């Protein structure tokens, strides 16, 4: 059975789906690993590193894709500069494992089904204890949460920690983190390590203890609706609740030096938590880093992919932050994807078992079938 590692072609993608250390372990298990020439270049792994780990380097893209029984990627397949579609390069009946963003871009599922690909979406790995080692959303969100604080600290015209010096005392920076999921919690921990005073807010009351255990103050809002959906994710809240939360957080935004927003609702546009009015009330020189920029942003003034200054406030809207730390991002992703792959391989042969809840949840297409009801519904309103 041939397992192939594709070179990523998305412009801002620097990660790679397998790293040499993990290739060596798979080769030891008797699996054949094929790596596209240059796949590890942006992660500082050379073809020679992969060869030393036991992989074969393939220069011809069409050969790599069309001969793979399992093709591994980080970013969703897309059209190549030479006009060929990556999906059309796949062998019918083969397996693709990658981030696929099927709820944001359901058309991809239709294309994969048309090509009879068994596609597993890394975004749809359930957030359960057994699936923890495969949870790429968490591994990558944690990197993003860390990096977001570094971006904020670099852009802030102040120190983060409190300092008592011969030239006087410096007050610590005040950091407000909105959304305390995986990225938000890592952001809290990182900002605390840098010495900031940290407050955090989330509509899921369950995170209160986690926030406090990291040394931050939890800003609580009591809403009259259930805010938690299946899988522990947040629900989209009513307009009334949105107004109440905005009123509650306005003063905290105003008094902060740094606001970091990470709030997301799967499959939906990110909720607006910081309005124009709130940004206008912030002190000049303050910084907002909007980790939800890719999903439209949590701040009304965010320009996705850009750093802007709005009314004296620096607003950073990073895209694909994990890719800015490609070495560890790839190391963790490679572990996640390999753990998932182990569920699909028995005695060196492919065995897709839909009785396994993880395979069942992650597999979006099999043969010509789209297997996920939410994707089917999203497809009805999408343009194919
Ligand atoms: P996410 O990226 O979907 O969202 C980030 C945070 O934004 C969440 O905490 C969410 O509650 C919050 N949010 C959404 N709308 C908001 C709003 N209007 N105002 C304020 N905050 C808002 O979240 P995630 O980091 O992917 O985590 C999702 C869930 O999965 C969490 O319950 C997390 O604890 C759980 N999880 C479980 C496991 C596991 O058990 N193996 C692993 C990772 C995550």
UniProtKB/TrEMBL annotation:
EC number(s) reported in the record: 7.1.1.1
GO CC entries: plasma membrane
GO MF annotations in UniProt: NADP binding; oxidoreductase activity; proton-translocating NAD(P)+ transhydrogenase activity
Domain Alanine dehydrogenase/pyridine nucleotide transhydrogenase N-terminal: 4-144
Annotated keywords: NAD, NADP, Nucleotide-binding, Oxidoreductase, Translocase
InterPro entries: Ala_DH/PNT_CS2 (IPR008143), AlaDH/PNT_N (IPR007886), AlaDH/PNT_NAD(H)-bd (IPR007698), NAD(P)-bd_dom_sf (IPR036291)
Gene3D superfamilies xref list: NAD(P)-binding Rossmann-like Domain
Keyword Aminoacyl-tRNA synthetase: no
SMART domains in the cross-refs: AlaDh_PNT_C, AlaDh_PNT_N
Pfam families, A to Z: AlaDh_PNT_C, AlaDh_PNT_N
CDD domains: Rubrum_tdh
Catalytic activity field: NAD(+) + NADPH + H(+)(in) = NADH + NADP(+) + H(+)(out)
Record's function text: The transhydrogenation between NADH and NADP is coupled to respiration and ATP hydrolysis and functions as a proton pump across the membrane.
Family: Belongs to the AlaDH/PNT family.
Protein name: NAD(P) transhydrogenase subunit alpha part 1
Species assigned in the record: Nostoc azollae (strain 0708) (Anabaena azollae (strain 0708))
């Amino acid at each position: 059975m041939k397992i192939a590692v594709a070179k990523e072609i998305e412009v801002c993608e620097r990660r790679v789906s397998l790293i040499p250390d993990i290739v060596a372990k798979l080769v030891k298990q008797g699996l054949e690993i094929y790596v596209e020439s240059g796949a590890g270049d942006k992660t500082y792994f050379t073809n020679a590193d992969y060869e030393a780990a036991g992989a074969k380097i393939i220069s011809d893209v069409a050969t790599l894709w069309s001969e793979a029984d399992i093709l591994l990627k980080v970013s969703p397949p897309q059209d190549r500069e030479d006009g060929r579609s990556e999906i059309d390069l796949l062998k019918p009946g083969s397996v693709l494992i990658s981030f696929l963003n099927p709820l944001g871009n359901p058309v991809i599922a239709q294309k994969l089904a048309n090509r009879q690909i068994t596609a597993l979406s890394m975004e749809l790995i359930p957030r359960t204890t057994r699936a923890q080692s495969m949870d790429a959303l968490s591994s990558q969100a944690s990197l993003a949460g860390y990096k977001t604080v570094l971006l904020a600290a670099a852009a802030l015209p102040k120190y983060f920690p409190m300092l008592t010096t011969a030239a006087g005392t410096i007050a610590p920076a005040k950091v407000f983190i909105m959304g305390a999921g995986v990225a938000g919690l890592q952001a809290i921990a990182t900002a605390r390590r840098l010495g900031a005073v940290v407050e955090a807010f989330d509509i899921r009351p369950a995170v209160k203890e986690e926030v406090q255990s990291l040394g931050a103050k939890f800003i609580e809002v009591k809403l009259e609706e259930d805010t938690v959906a299946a899988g522990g994710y947040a629900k989209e809240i009513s307009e009334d609740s949105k107004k109440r939360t905005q009123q509650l957080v306005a003063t905290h935004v105003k008094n902060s030096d740094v606001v970091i927003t990470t709030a997301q609702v799967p499959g939906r546009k990110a909720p607006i938590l910081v309005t124009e009015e709130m940004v206008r009330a912030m002190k000049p020189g303050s910084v907002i880093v909007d980790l939800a920029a890719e999903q439209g942003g949590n701040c009304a003034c965010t320009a996705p992919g850009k750093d802007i200054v709005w009314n004296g406030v620096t607003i950073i809207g990073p895209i694909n932050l994990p890719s800015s730390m490609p070495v560890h991002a790839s190391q963790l992703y490679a572990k996640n994807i390999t753990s998932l792959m182990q569920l699909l391989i028995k005695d060196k042969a492919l065995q897709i078992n839909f009785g396994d809840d993880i395979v069942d949840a992650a597999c979006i297409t099999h043969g010509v079938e789209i297997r996920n009801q939410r994707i089917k519904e999203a497809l009805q309103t999408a343009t194919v």
